[in-house]
Amino acid sequence: MITKKDKWSWFKKFGYAFRGIYVSLKEESSLVVHFVIGTIVMVLGIILNSEMSYTDWCIVVLLVAIIISMELLNTAIENIIDVVMFEYNVNAKKIKDISAAATLVLTIASVVIGLVIFIPKIIDVFQTW
Q1: Mean pLDDT of all residues in 88-111
Q2: Are 95 and 81 contacting, i.e. CB atoms less than 8 angstroms apart?
Q3: CA gap 12, 14 in Å, rounded
């Protein structure tokens, strides 16, 4: 049975998560870039809505969410390293670089998949004009 206290703890958990997004957006310019590009992609999908299948939408939304989530993880990893390491450390730099590389790989893959989804739809729209 869910008690009143348990019910409110869920709201607190969501509050912590939204605060994490807010703090990350304030501190990480690359996360802001991903949010802006994600928004642009969603708007493009809305503009091309008649051309977009449910599968296309699922892929686009999932890719945007994965990229933003990876950027949040990258930010968390970088902050953990900064808290633990008080001075420059080669291994700490490697960890940060590898974490950033994971974000880059996902971003490149998402761009390629996005182009595969959107380019034929954009071509179709221009051909019907």
Answers
A1: 96
A2: yes
A3: 5
Phi, psi at residue 20, to the nearest 5°?
Answer: -60, -40
d(CA 3, CA 14): 18
10-45: buried (b, 16+ CB within 10 Å) or exposed (e) per residue? eeeeeeeeeeeeeebeeebeebeebbebbeebeebb
Dist CA 109 CA 102 (whole Å): 11
Q: Cα separation of 15 and 93, whole Å? A: 32
Q: Which two tokens stand for residue 95?
A: 């960890």
Please tell me whether the overall predicted TM-score, pTM, comes out greater than 0.85 for this model.
Answer: yes
pLDDT, tens digit, 9 for 90 and up, residues 42-94: 999 999 988 899 999 999 999 999 999 999 999 999 999 999 998 999 999 99
Q: Are 81 and 94 in contact (CB under 8 A)?
A: no
Provide CB contacts within 8 A for 32, sequence distance 6+: 25
Interhelix angle 4-27/29-47, rounded to 10 degrees, is 100
